[in-house]
Amino acid sequence: MMNAKQKKRCYITVGIILASAAVVALVLLALNENIHLYYTPTEIAQEQAPVNRPIRMGGIVVPGSVQRQGEGLLVAFDLTDGLNEITVSYDGILPDLFREGQGIVATGQLDNNYKLVASQVLAKHDESYMPKEVEQSMRAQYNDS
Amino acid sequence: MKKLLAPKYLDALLAIIIPVFAITGLVLLAIGLYWGLFVAPADYQQQDAFRIIYVHVPAAFLSLGIYVGMATAAAMALIFRIRVFDYWAAASAPVGAVFTFLALVTGAIWGKPMWGTWWVWDARLTSELILLFIYFGIILLRDALNNAQQPATAAQVLTLVGLVNIPIVHFSVNWWYTLHQGATLSKFAKPEMHPSMLWPLLICIVGFGFVYLFLTCLKTRTLLWRSQSGTHWLAEKLGVKHG
Question: A104 and A66 share a domain?
Answer without folding.
Answer: yes
